Amino acid sequence: MDTTLRALVFDVDGTLADTERDGHRVAFNRAFVDAGVDWHWDERRYGELLAVTGGKERMLQHWREVDRAAADAPSAGERIAELQRLKTAHYVALVGAGTVRLRPGVERLLRQARGAGLQLAIATTTTADNVAALLRSTLGDDAPGWFACVGAGDVVPRKKPDPGIYHWVLDRLGLPARQCLAFEDSGNGLRAAHGAGLRTVITPCGYTAGDDFEAAWACLDGLGERGAPASGHVGGAPWRGVVDVACLRDWARN
Ligand code: XBP
Ligand code: MG
Fold first, then answer.
1. Is the beta carbon of 90 within 6 A of some atom in ligand 1?
2. Given the CA of residue 16, which atom of ligand 1 is nearest to it?
3. Ordered structural domains, the chain, with CATH
4. 88, 155, 184, 212: which has the fewest Cβ within 10 Å?
5. Strand order of the sheet with strand 7-10?
6. pLDDT single digits (tens) 27-72
7. pLDDT at position 251, please?
8. Is the pTM here over 0.90, yes or no?
9. 122: part of which helix (H) or strand (E)?
C-alpha cells in the first residue's frame, strides 16, 4: 500500500491561527450590535457554543436556547443568514487589519511543504471569504493560490465532526487518505479527519485544550520553530522537535 506523503490538509481556525476568542467572537458581537440583537457572547459563553461548528449553526443553537419559538419560526433562516453576512464582513475587516497572526511554525511548514512538492489543501467549517482574508493578510495576496483546494463552509451539507469536508477535499485532490496528513486543533476536527481515514496531527489551541484527542496520530503543543521545539506525543510515544517535511513523511509511512 503506497503511503507516500503527497498532501497536507489544514484546518483553519485554531490550527493555522488562534482566531476564535479575539477574531470570530468579536465579529459575532459586532454583528449583533449592527443588527440590534441583544446578544453578547463573552469568552465563557463562546467557549460553550464552540461545541457547535459553523457560525450559522452556532447562532441558531444560541437562539434556540434563548427563544426557542423565535428560532423555530420560518423566517429564522433568513435572519441567521443576514447575521452571518454582517459577521463575516466584520471578521474579514478584523483579519485584514492585521489583528490575527499565524501560529508558530505554520508559515515555515507551508513554505517548506510547497518547496518539497507536497500539495496543500484546506478543510474548514468557516467561509471561503474568511479563509482568503486570513491567508492574504498573513502570507500575502498570492497565498490562496498555494492551496490545491479549499474546502470551506457550506460546500458540504454537514459540518465537522462529519467527515464530509475531508472527503470533499480528498476527492478534489484525487488522493487516497493514506497519502495525506490532516492538521487540526479540536475534537470536532479530529473526528472529521479521522472519520475520513486521515492520520491527524493535533495542535490544541485556546478553547480546545481539553478536547478528546485519543484518535490523533500526533498531539503536540505546536509545530515548533528552530530554537523553540514543539513537544507532545507521536504514535503514542513522547516526542520533541520541529515538525518538518522529513518527519511528516515518516509519520505518513509508519
Ligand atoms: C471553526 C468554526 C467556524 C468559526 C466561525 O472552523 O467552527 O465556525 O468558529 O466561522 P474550523 P464561521 O476550526 O473548522 O476552521 O462563522 O465562518 O462559521
Ligand atoms: Mg479548528
1. no
2. 15
3. 7-18+101-253 (3.40.50.1000), 20-96 (1.10.150.240)
4. 212
5. 149-152, 119-124, 7-10, 180-184, 199-202, 218-220, 230-234, 237-241
6. 999 999 999 999 999 999 999 999 999 999 999 999 999 999 999 9
7. 97
8. yes
9. strand 119-124
